[in-house]
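From the pipeline queue, job 12 of 40. The input is one protein chain; the requested action is below.

Action: predict structure.
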Amino acid sequence: MYYDYIQISKINDYLFCPWSIYFHSVYENFEECLYKAKPQIGGTIAHKTIESKTYSTEAGFLQSLEVFSEKYGLIGKIDLYNQKTQTLTERKNKIQQIYDGQIFQLYAQKLCLEEMGYTVKKKEIYSMTDNKKYPIIISEAQKFKFTQVLEAIKNFDFSELKTTNLLKCDNCIYRTLCKK
């Protein structure tokens, strides 16, 4: 069966603004310093130990593991999974507020891991700057909204996109390119 897999990292981007996915792909081959703002650069730096798999040498930690779900059509990487405690952790440079996109990203990783045979008992978002862990519990309403978001991504049509939140636009790193 053929799937157009959704990259897990794009779920948060889509909820912020679908145009950001397009503009990110435009800049993909450029030096990040040309288009990333300070928060995005901080996030990239924060993930270096995960990407290089040097966060921990302990055997029970899975770091930067590629995951997928055939059932949901998802593909991506996890940050950290502790096999002993069965805890999935998404690391962020600094959390000021937890958004649906971050929760859905973590939930997508959980679904992938479980489909691959792992058990996930706990989910958390870790804010590196202030060393805080935020336990994440997914409600039934959020699970339903998650499936709606996946369907919206699969069926998205750029020609129908209207700007709905100018505050997001004002804080978008692609605002100079986007005339929406």
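Job complete. The chain has a mean pLDDT of 83.
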